[in-house]
Amino acid sequence: MEDRVTPESKTPGNGRAQWRSLEELSGSSEYREHAETEFPDYFAEALDLPPVAENAALSRRSFLGVMGASLALTGLAGCQRPLAKILPYSKLPEDLLPGVPQSYATVMQFRGMGEGILVTSNEGRPTKIEGNPDHPSSLGATHSYAQASILQLYDPDRSQFPTEGNASRTWEEWNAWLTPKLTTLRADGGRGLAFLSLPTASPTLRAKRAEVMAAFPNARWVDYEPLNRDNAIEGSRLAYGRPFRQQLALDQAEVIVSLDSDFLFVEPNSVRHARDYGRRRRVASTQDSMNRLYVVETVFSITGSMADHRLRLAPTQVAEVARALAATLTGQHSMYLGGETWSAGTLSDRAQVFVATLARDLAEHRGRSVVLAGGSQPPEVHALAMALNHALGNVGPVVRYTLEPYPAQQREGIAGLAKAMDTGQVNFLVVLGGNPAYDAPADIDFTARMRKVPDVACLSFYRDETAEKANWHLPETHFLETWGDAEAWDGTRSIQQPLIAPMYQGKSELEVLSMFLGRPLDSHALLQEAYGREWGVFSGSRWDRALNDGVLPGTAYAEITATPDFSSVTAAWSRRTPPASGGIEALFRPDYSVWDGRFANNSWMQELPDPMTKIVWDNAALLSSKTAESLGVKDGDLVSVSVANRDLEIAACIVPGLADGAVVLPLGYGRKRVGRVGDGVGFNTYALRTTTGMDIAPASVKAGAGHYTLVRTQDHQAIEGRPLVREGTLEEYRKDPEFAREMNEAPPPLTLYTNKEYDFSKPPQWGMAIDLNTCIGCNACTIACQSENNIPTVGKEQVKKNREMHWIRIDRYYVGDVEEAEAVHQPIPCMHCENAPCENVCPVNATNHSADGLNQMVYNRCIGTRYCNNNCPYKVRRFNFLAWRKHEPEVIKMAMNPDVTVRMRGVMEKCTYCVQRINRKRIEAKIAQRDIQDGEIRTACQQVCPTEAIIFGDLLDSESRVAKLKAEERSYTLLEELNTQPRTFFLARLRNPNSEMEKA
Amino acid sequence: MIFPKWTNRTPLPVAVGGGFVLILVVTAFAYYISPYSTQVGYAPTQPVPYSHKLHAGALGMDCRYCHVAVERSPVAMVPVSQTCMNCHSVIKKDSDKLAPIRQSVDTGLPVQWVRVHHAPDFVYFNHSAHVNAGVGCESCHGRIDQMEVVRQAKPLNMAWCLDCHRSPEKYVRPPEFVTAMGYVPAGNQLELGRQLVAARNIHPPTDCWGCHR
Amino acid sequence: MSTATVPPEPREMVPDDPRRRLTLVQGRHSFADITRMVCAPVEEPATRGWWVGFGIASMCLGLFVAMVVYLVLVGIGIWGLNSPQGWGFDITNFVWWVGIGHAGTLISAILYLFRQKWRTAINRFAEAMTIFAVICALMFPTIHVGRIWMLWMALPIPNWEAIWPQFRSPLLWDVFAVGTYFTVSVIFWYMGLIPDLATLRDRAKSKVRWLVYGILAMGWRGSARHWANYEKAYLILAGISTPLVLSVHSIVSFDFAVSVIPGWHTTIFPPYFVAGAIFSGFAMVMTLAIVARRAFRLTDVITIDHLDNMNKIMLATGMMVGYAYSMEFFISWYSGNKYEMFTFVNRAFGPYAWAYWIMITCNVLVPQIFWFRKNRRSIPIMFVASILINVGMWFERFVIIMSLSRDFLPSSWGYYKPTWVEICTLIGSLGLFFTLFFLFLRFLPMVAMAEVKNVLPQADPHGHGEGGVPPGEPA
């Protein structure tokens, strides 16, 4: 590590020693003793673990960030010269070329499924995650969580070594403790032994679990994840008698009905759903058609914000819509639901019109529509949705079924376990991965139960709420640190190959289980063993192929055809208790930033604004303005929500388009033991979540005392009637394709400036298209950009001062009245104006234009007058008001992209169109003496986008996708009357409303 | 009479002299902070007294034998210890000077070379781009083949870079001569250069983002 | 008896009928009296009042230094600035100080060219005030970048990167405009000082004094040729600095006028800013003059008629400013540009309405009292008025800069609140200003003795014996 004489550079080592020395810095003394035995060498070589490369760019860049003054010195042509070291390898790992990043295929497990990813590695440091185009659940895109998981890897608050009580231990000591225990356990088949784990999509791990259960037949195994799919699975049991998993082909659906189903983000396989949905949303000409999306939901979800028709209803009312839908379809459209008769419940007039129109639309689109029930809806709704799909003939063309590989009922599971713990039937509890002490249902009071268990061992990523109560805590590896495998939503299997040796002493669940089987092995050996068994004989070539492609072909689940048992569905509905009218219903839902709480210590996610509320670093009780009014609550006031005699003081947030008589409680905040980022952020809504009301529960809300500061990245919600986001209906578009351009306020003005200074006639001339019609506002681009461009986080206080640093933000405006508001999203990166207002006000030429039309920002030239941002009509520039990275832990620097400067304080920065990617490709092309192909360069935001809403390319190449989009009638530029000539342009949003809905 | 008569004559000389001194100081300072005084000639002692004069000069080894990445990567790559041992496991196998190399190969710990040519952190220099465009090693590193101890031969300041980026024809060579030392163009460099630039479509970036980002 | 021979009131300072000319210096003072009066504060030991004032001022200066050090060490983040709002107190203070720095040169140069003899009493410390105000002004662009060591890049000096500043940027024009203005003002001021410095030299009691004043006086002997050269040079410099008075603030106004931001992008700015500058400049001269003439018993030299005249000028410029305010509104409506319209409505009724109405009150309403001769000649009224006007002029700049908080995209709207650091910096800059001013009062003649003597009755070739002082008495 050059440029700096730190402990690392004094004690240089091969790759592994590099982060071990970080470890030394963090002062874990017993680390060194076991460092040698930690990883056998063949393991390291299999990983191609490279030492610090010649340009240990990490330190080169971070040097800039850390020692600001040195920049000034180099700026002054280096009056002094830091002694810089070059540390070459002692032996070059094969197929590694220093300075050239490599990309490896692996898989991330999330929401009980595998999502294929490609990970960029710079001299052994994984720095960026992309989707794997060959993976069915990704097709090259990812969601924000996958993007942010890279930061998780370098989280300094990760648990780093085993602990017994509060004393640090080693794995040897753990084994020494475990072995005698196991012998006694084996004696009576593991009676009193209990495992609590997360559901997994890894077949190898499932096999290993089975092995363990075989070895301890009397042990009990429970799966629990706070955000589980119990309802869907139970629903399928009702409808088909068997646990089915829906495989959707949304690109085949003309009409999509979402019953509180956020299939574009929250539901599993959302990335694929979004891609397919986007395909049917894209219109190139007036001949093209669009699908139509009906959404019935309580609070604005990402899916709801895309709806053509949205009906806001209290959570239990959503089910009533389903029932009414069945009634109308059977009654008026002669649809066969097992001949059963359905009676509509009581619905508001608006809801009745909605249902009637929707039913007609569905009836007209048999076989080309789909009804989706959300995970928070009770089983009977899922069952009915399945029945409807079958009756509408959608099963086959749009919906296909495969068997649910892991249909454990988690709610019962954890409740049963708790009972067992209570009655002393459990004397050795092994928690593998989860965090029940934090996220188990409140009525279980898992923490209290744990005290009744003599021995609790907990394998977890952080020394979290559960781990600190357990008498043994074992550090878990990050998925980029260990071998494994995972199945995609459709079952396609991927090998999970590590990108880096465990940074700390973590082990994977697979490895820990192998200890319970008495033969501890590392994950690599275990996995090859497993595949050896599966393939009969282990084939190296086949293995390498799988690693290279990231998928094992032909491993998808077999499709199942079955007919639903309509009577059992009706029976379930007859059992259903009609919702109590009046009163307030609480709806628990995952948080768009921290999910179920596992990303609570991830500063990227904490600072990522909620797509709809735009709140950062917090969650809040979401209320409709009417409800708030009736309670006498204003936005930001503290309210006390009580569910089943449990109270919680939480800040209220008033959200347009939210159903009256409902309070929505995002989960995952109020962590106590996770790390310096997440501790004590937000409110722990799990405190109100009980086994009987995991998703929906009757609640009461009353105004509390005091006010709480909720920080939003966007304070002003209305668009002030300005033609910024231009939208129309499909009909309007067909009548007048140019409608978006006609919304322009003024005719293009004359300008005093001539472009003589810059000649934009030579290709390439870069430009970016953003299709507002397909953008779902999921924030993936923001995080991808943060990861690609080393963008710092600034913390709640600074965001409050409007100092967030995101290079691409997503503006969200509400249209229409507050109650029945519609929402629109608009991603705003730098516009790269040809007449850039920022350029001619900079006194030092720090921002100017490049020959290929990029608006350049040069950090080492910027003196920080901030005039450029003042003069930017789009306010896309971001200023380093303080040294944001000054207090960042050393290890975070490993997450930096070495191709992008880490900015110091007092410097302006902004979107660069990922110039580092452009330059790399340009140089490659130059060396190969060829032209850059269209699509060869993809910006980080473009690459991650699930709906392909962002397209980057050469505007002069008439064949390029971006040029074609520019030619479309829907294309327009923002504030064109200012004649800034932006290179980033938008395609107007289209809605596809059902004309009959207006008539009615 | 407060001041003596001669004081009447002081203003002019004072003004002239002052101006002269000022100019002198400014020039001196400008030179002092210039790369010509701060960087050119910087020749730190290396942990291993490796002689380019011997290897590249006398033995005539090609640069790319050791700096293997230079054509494919942004970094030319200081050779891994193993590379040295390719020969030195046979020749001079137990010379004391080579002790650090042998040690490195045994322990797997790198040799700590001292960086000589040091671009600031915000400069993204790419060796492969330059080498493939026909910029000779010599053009930036000087007559390495004559250096017992490597020293910085060129100022490597931005104006110096721009000189070539603005008019590459003054410096580019045919690809086969890129690693040649003491290269003399066959004929007029400018004409030759113009042909090369045209033939290989060389137009180096003069945009800021060509090198800074 | 002298009063008996001249026509009755009203007398004016600039009459058509020379016989109705008002004696610019009240009381029957000889040349020597003038010298004594003006030199007294410089030669006699400092009063307690001076020490108190100087003490407070230099404490504030200390505060200023502390704030700047804090800023340079930590960064701009310690101020309240944010993303839509890149400028706040910093540039407000800059423009305010530059504006104040206008009166001096205007009084000495333009009034000189217009042969306004009454200026002689006030031009000296008006110029001093100008120079100190410009020094304060220059502080803010310097520190507002935070990393002040980078500033050299904004100067057109040869460098090893072969890049130059960006000459299209109004910020760079500022560097030149304000720089030139400062240089010329200093030279002009020093030129005028030379004869008086010589007087001080000749009266010096201690060796140090005569050495220092001697060197500064550059061997001035008051010979006829000296006077001839002096007059010529003074006239030329006056000619040079006159256009500067107009150019500087026009260029400062370009900082806003050339931008695209609604509320900034306005053609009326240059004249509007110049008028405002003169307005605030006079107000500041007023404030200082009122105190100084009382404190140093110069009421006969800086007479009530002087103050009256200055009040008239403030009334005039105040109405120009008021006109500009209304015209801005009219144009924004007339332009039909919805962003413009929104900005101005927002100005008067938006989150910063409070600042806007303070501005209107202080700058447009307050000066109206000067329609009445009684108010123009009442010391307390004009003192309060002058201070209010300076407050108002500060808010004018503040209001303009706050246009940033709500520009084109509602999504990026914000609100700017200054932090204690910014407030302390503003107070500190006042400290810097007054510290310098107190030093000036103590060590330099605050009234141009030589020039005032020129306007004494006995200096009038036709007025032999007037004032009862034999002509040619050595002063």
Question: What can you see in these coordinates?
Answer:
- Among the domains of chain A are: 230-403, 3-Layer(aba) Sandwich (Dimethylsulfoxide Reductase, domain 2); 581-712, Barwin-like endoglucanases, CATH 2.40.40; 746-751 and 759-991, Alpha-Beta Plaits (2-Layer Sandwich), CATH 3.30.70.
- Chain A is built from 34 helices and 40 strands.
- In chain A, strand 33 and strand 34 form a beta hairpin.
- Chain A is of the alpha/beta class.
- The longest helix of chain A has 18 residues, at 315-332.
- Among the domains of chain B are: 5-33; 51-60 and 69-77 and 117-213, no CATH class.
- Chain B contains 10 helices and 1 strand.
- In chain B, helix 5 (81-88) crosses helix 6.
- Chain B is extended.
- The model of chain B has no long low-confidence stretch (mean pLDDT 89).
- Chain C starts with a helix and ends in a 21-residue tail after the last helix.
- Chain C is mainly α and 475 residues long.
- Helices cover 65% and strands 0% of the residues of chain C.
- The radius of gyration of chain C is 24 Å and the shape is globular.
- Chains in contact: A-B, A-C, B-C.
- The interface between A and C is large, with 59 and 53 residues.
- Strand 1 (85-86) of chain A pairs antiparallel with strand 1 of chain B.
